[in-house]
Structures are given as structure tokens and as C-alpha cells.
Amino acid sequence: MIPHNDQDDQLYRLLAAVAMQDRQAFRTLYDVASPQLFGFALRVLHREDLAEEAVRDAFVSIWHAAPGYQMHLAPPLTWMVTIVRNKALHIRRRTHADADTGDGRLDIEAADGLVDPSSGPADPAQLSRDARALARCMETLASRQRQAIGMAYLHGLSHDEVAARLDLPVGTVKTWIRRGLVRLRDCLAQREAP
Amino acid sequence: MILRDLPALRNSPTLRDRLAAEYALGTLRGGARRRFETWLRDDPALRDVVAGWQERLAALAELDLPLMPPARVWAAIERRLDPAAVPPRTPWWQFWHSDAARPWGVLAVGACAAWLVLALSKTMPDMAPQSRQIAALSDAQSHTALVVTADTARGRLDVRVAEEVHVPTDRTLQLWAITRTGKPRSLGILPGNRSTDLALDARAIDPDVALLAISLEPKSGSPDPTGPTGPVLYKGSWANL
Questions:
Q1: Are A12 and A73 in contact (CB under 8 A)?
Q2: Are residues A1 and A93 in the same domain?
């Protein structure tokens, strides 16, 4: 995999410098990437203090893990998002340990909100090509499919937990998620085709 | 689906894709997830399938509004990366040992306390200052959220909670006194997480109490009698009136 846009290229060069313990590059990487990652952590955690903790922990990990980062496995932003998501879900499990009954409704709406194209950034021009394509492909899914995928990805919920929240049989939820993902993949592949 | 069957996995692109998607999404759990991870180690092509899903899903993160984190986040990262520049790890309640004890932080809390003393002495003209101690408990940004007053004459500990403090319905705020040696003592939980009047425990105002703290705990209080299990939200120290 080669860098397929300017942002990836910039992040890749910064990560390579960070791998060489370049603190200046690390600061630049933070300036460039942290707003997106913080926005994402907020969506997962709904609390600024917790989102700050997730971003802090993630960047400490990024510093230590940069030498092992492999461009061919994931573009830089994907790699960093995966790290932030792991930290955020870890924090979410800690703080939601037994809070999952009260705010179920809120979770459903929040999960849907992310993948509802009308609630995305005001300016679609600011999105990368990948994200624009994803937003368009998300629109082709049924809203409950979007909800189910959002709840699993953003809130780290299992099939059983998503089924309980949506009050549906777990088999139905599994099928929805599977079909939704396949549809997403096919939609994205079509857009990438020349 | 028979997940134990490795040849089936090798020969079925549909199954590989499905498991890789579930792995990236996080819905592949338990034993199935662990088995999948062992296959991943020896199957670079399968790793690529997972990477493809991770990339598709990570684009979800871009659909959120970007927001610059506060400066303290970078400061915290730098402290983590330079442990040599930071004093030895100390429990959170021994904050005067750490760089959290910035003079301005202490001053801000002091200023809050002074302001509250003025405010309270206006609203409570009958108060007997010599028998009172007051503490303003603030969050990490020095916003005062609670005021605790110990009234030795009445044997009461009065806790006032600011209106902006919101607590999840299944959680409770618990008040602690932390000694100079760093030992927490529970002073009780705040019923309904609102202003309340607790019986004054002499251990709350013992001279060896360095500060008071509020932690967020399960409904019946910290399951650990020796200290908080949840995050510490507010802290502050006694001022004598």
C-alpha cells in the first residue's frame, strides 16, 4: 500500500520521524492529528475529560509503538484511530461498567448520529476522499443497520448487547450487521474502481 | 459456523471476510476471537483482509467534527514521556508532591475559599467562625464544585454541591478525607448527590488531614473500604475560619 493522499503522506513522514525519537515531529503529528482523534474520542465517550484521557493514552502509545508501525498494513490515520478506539473503549468499559441500563436510548441515538450523514462535519470538503465515500455509502444502509454497526464500532458492544439495546433477536442483529458491512464494502469498492 | 476448522477458514473467502470484518468491528469475542488471532499470526493474507476492514471502519472517525484538545493533554503526554523530569510516581492524593501542586492552582483554590468565606459570612451572619473549617473542592480546572463546612459546635459536616454537578443515576459521590501520609478515610456518600448534612466524624478534621476529595463510585459507595475505586473528581483542603 502506498500513501494515497497528501494527508497520508504527511502523516507517514511524521510517523517515520517519530519512530526515530524525533520529538519535534511528534509535536507536529499531535497538532495535525489530535483534533480528529479527539472529536472521535468524544463521540465514543461523550465526556471531555474521558476523551482527553483517551487521546493522552493513545499518543503515549503512538510514541512507543511508532517504530513498529507498518505502512503496508494500515494508513497512518487508520492506525492511530485504531489505537484511540482501543483506549476509548477501555475507558468506556471502565466507566460504564454497570451504567449500561440507564442510557441505552442515548447510546442508540449517539451511535446513529455518527453514521447519519446529516450530522457530520458542516463542510464535506474537509473530509478525506475515503471519509466522503464512506459517508455516501453509509447513506445506502437502512438506519437500523447504521445504528447496529455504530453501536458495535463506537461503543464496543457485542452482538448480544446490540440486540438487547435494539430489542431484537441476536440472529437478526448479526445478519443486519453482516449485510450492512458487505454492502458498505461493495459500495466503497465500486467507488474506488476507475 | 465451525470456527475451529482451520482448513474451512483457509478455503472459504466468504468466511475469512466475515470473521475479519467481525474482528475489526469488535463483535468477534471470546474464544472465537482468540482462535482468530492465532490464525492471523500465520496468515498474512488474512491480516490484509482485517486491515482492509480496519481502514474502512476507521474512516468513521473522520465523520466527527475535529476539535483541538486542551493544552493540558499535550502537557500530560510530555510528562508521561519524560518520567525522569517528573517526581517519582505518587498517589493522586499526595498532589503536593507532584507538579499538579502548581502555585497558581493552590492560589486559585485559596482564592475560591476566600471568596466563599466572604459569601457565606454574608449569608450566614449567625455563624460562629471559631468553630468552623471550610474546604472548597475543585475539579482539575480549578472550578469549585462543592463546599464542605465542618461545624464542631453542632457536630455536623455540611456539604453544598453546585447545581452544575451532574452524576449518572447509578453512581454516587463519595467524600474522603486524605491524611498527610496518603491514607483515605471515607466520610460518607452524598445521598442523591445533592447538598447534604452529614454527621461530623472527628477524623474528618483531624490535623493530619491534608485534603478532602470526592470520588465517583457505584451506588452504595466504594466497594473498597480502604479507598476510592472510581475517578477522583474534586479535591480541596481545609481552611480555618
A1: no
A2: yes
Cβ–Cβ of B59/A131 closer than 8 Å? yes
Which of B53, B55, B66 comes nearest A39 by C-beta? B66
Which residue range is the domain that position A121 belongs to? 100-194
Rg of chain A over Cα atoms, rounded to whole angstroms, equals: 17
Give the span between the Cα atoms of B109 and A129, in whole angstroms: 48
Q: What is the pLDDT of residues B123-157, one digit of tens each?
A: 544 444 456 788 988 877 677 888 998 888 888 88
Closest listed residue to residue B182, CA positions, set B109, B232, B131, B113: B232
Q: How far apart are CA A139 and CA A154, in angstroms?
A: 18
Give rounded-to-5 percent helix, strand, coil for chain B: 40, 25, 35
How many angstroms away from the CA of B45 is the closest CA of chain A?
A: 11
Q: Which of A46, A40, A43, A16 is nearest to A28 (CA)?
A: A16
Using DSSP, how many helices (H) and how many strands (E) does chain B show? 6, 9
A39-to-A126, B63, B66, B155, B196 alpha-carbon distances in Å: 14, 9, 5, 48, 37
Q: How far apart are CA B72 and CA A69, in angstroms?
A: 27
The domain spans of chain B are 6-63, 95-240
Q: In 3D, which of A87, A92, A114 has the Cα closest to residue A103?
A: A92
Are residues A84 and A125 both part of a single domain?
no
Distance from CA of A87 to the nearest CA of B (A): 13
Query: How far is Cα B145 from Cα B159, in angstroms, rounded to an integer?
Result: 11
B95-240 carries CATH number 3.30.750: no
Residues of B within 8 A of A128 (CB-CB) are 59, 62
Q: Which amino acid, B16?
A: R
B167-220: pLDDT as tens digits: 777 778 899 998 887 788 888 888 877 888 888 888 888 888 888 988 888 888
Residue B216 near residue B171 (C-beta atoms within 8 A) = yes
This prediction has a pTM of: 0.58
Question: What is the interface pTM, i.e. ipTM, of the complex?
Answer: 0.83
